Each structure stands twice: as structure tokens, then as C-alpha cells.
Amino acid sequence: MLYTLSIIMQRYKHSPYWFNLKFNNAEFAMPKLKTNKGAAKRFKKTASGGFKRKQSHLRHILTKKSTKRKRHLRAQSMVNKVDVPQIRRMLPFA
């Protein structure tokens, strides 16, 4: 199906994939799916479909935190189910 450039601009001007569109002889190609690299470094998908993440507060000012608290912060935790759809969008190939 052929589209004019103005129709494409109207439809996709607010899309985050606008700059990934390719035009070949006024023929519209679907936008590429790209992995969000920041999210890829922070989240790992589990076998059950959830996502695990590292906990915060373990980078600096560690002297006033107890050993027990730091030990528990080393453990990974699961992402809340409310946030999973956003992470799935950021990691389309996970």
C-alpha cells in the first residue's frame, strides 16, 4: 500500500519510532523495534515471564548502613506486576 509523506507524518509524528521509518519510493515501511539499552542493562526476564531487578541504595554512604541491611540489598527482587507492561515495551525481544 502506498502512502504519501504527509499522511505518514500525520500518523507517526508523535511516535518514538518516527526517526526509524524508512521510505523507499514513497512506500511505507514499518518502524523498527529497538531495545531500550538502559532497560536491557537493568532488567532480566525470568522463565515465568516476570522481570528481576537489582535493589537500590547500595552505591554510596554505606558506612551508616548495617551489614544485615547491605546483605539483604544484595539480593535481587522482582519487578512489580504494574510495571511489567512498560518493561515489556522497552524490551521487545526479551
Features:
alpha+beta; 94 residues; two-stranded antiparallel sheet; three-stranded antiparallel beta sheet; 2 domains; Factor Xa Inhibitor; elongated
Brief account:
The chain is of the alpha+beta class and 94 residues long. The protein has helices at residues 5-12, 37-42, 67-74, 84-90; strands at residues 23-24, 27-28, 43-45, 51-53, 77-78. Pfam families: Ribosomal_L35p.
Description:
The chain is an alpha+beta fold. The chain folds into 2 domains: 1-32, no CATH class; 34-94, Irregular (Factor Xa Inhibitor), CATH 4.10.410.60. The chain has 4 helices and 5 strands. It has helices at residues 5-12, 37-42, 67-74, 84-90, and strands at 23-24, 27-28, 43-45, 51-53, 77-78. A 3-stranded antiparallel β-sheet has the order 3-4-5. A hairpin with a 5-residue loop joins strand 3 (43-45) and strand 4. The model has no long low-confidence stretch (mean pLDDT 84).
